[in-house]
Design a protein that fits this description.
Blueprint (H helix, E strand, L loop, with lengths): L2 H20 L1 H8 L3 H22 L6 H18 L5 H13 L3 H13 L8 H24 L3 H25 L1 H8 L14 H22 L4 H22 L3 H6 L6 H16 L4
Keywords: Transferase
Protein name: Phytoene/squalene synthase family protein
Amino acid sequence: MDHIALFTETSRACSKLITQRYSTSFTLGIRTLDTRFHLPVYAVYGFVRWADEIVDTFHGHNKAALFQDFKRQTYEALEIGLSLNPVLHAFQDVVRQYGIDREFIDAFLYSMEMDLDDHAYNQSLYEKYIYGSAEVVGLMCLRIFCEGDTAMFDRLREPARRLGSAFQKVNFLRDIRSDYEERGRVYFPGVQYERFSDHVKQEIEADIRADFDAAYAGIVQLPRAARLGVYLAYVYYLKLFHKIRQLPAARILGERVRVPDNTKLLLLMGSYFRYRLRAI
């Protein structure tokens, strides 16, 4: 193995470690993909996780300056095909290998940058934020799963966007208290935190339900090498969504809903059996 290949392999291992440390659920989903997709998807997760950490975690530091430097390094890595930041090196390698669209990267970085400032989200800004923060991440992964099949990518593009949208909106609903108390944000357009009610919650849930339904139609058309992993993420978030739906608005404002690890294991087993029986 030459030195560049070793550096790239080590960089990919760093992204894998980041995924394992930051998201047990995402790691579990990746492990159910075909092994050829593991490291590329880890690289995508490492990239988006690092950007998100800058805007959401590094309090007491100049987050705007840190993000601008991260953004500069990202585009430099994409331009020259190398970065001394192992996360960015692994990511640029995957971007080049699978032809991930620069527009997806631009939109993602734009949405992350939005989190550096307080925003009152109208419908247009809300949709733009969700597209950049979640939908394009699904589209990056779809590029990997389609392995150059542009017709398949075009066919599954909209369901992939709807899946990312559903995941992000569930996160917004689950984290509505922490987003408001820790960051001063309410992402849902026209929703006032102090007036969050069961009626408002139900309207948001109807929108999320429509996203889940549209996403499922695409999941069953994915290549089998990717289908189980994406379906597992789908059923995990659907379970989380169902738990949220069963609670009144006041409970959502008072506690963070989660899916226990034993339930995740049951979801994995059930998903695997459906996959083996070709029910998905």
